[in-house]
Amino acid sequence: MTSLRWGLALSGWAAAAVVAFLPGALVLRAVVTTAFLLVCPGLAASRWARPGAARIRDRTAALERGVLTVTLSLSMAVLVAEPLFLTGTFTATRALLALAATTSVLALLPKPGERRGRAPRAVPDPDPRTADTGRPEPPAPE
Prior knowledge:
Blueprint: H1 3-21, H2 27-49, H3 59-86, H4 92-108
Helix pairs in contact: 1-2, 1-4, 2-3, 2-4, 3-4
């Protein structure tokens, strides 16, 4: 697992801890919460859903991924906040906890089609004489 995946998985919990334990008027609280809400859920979702390469070399593709990340993040925030508002149970802590859990799950899940840390299976060799080398042994001298 890469450090990006672990960073994404822990970012929501750090933002929730900041909201829960720091005073409301602190600038650090607003910066950490805003950064998490704008980037992390969408980055986890787009990282999980996109089968492409991890490195982006084209500026247009990087901009596309950035716009997709912010759009997905804001969409996920709305999808979490709306039911909480409609039921009258909205608090910033509850919304961040729901987003932190979702972000952690998306960050830690393997990508679709990705194997989970297992080595590829070796195909058994039908000829026992070539089991170790992959090529036939020379005939034994008589």
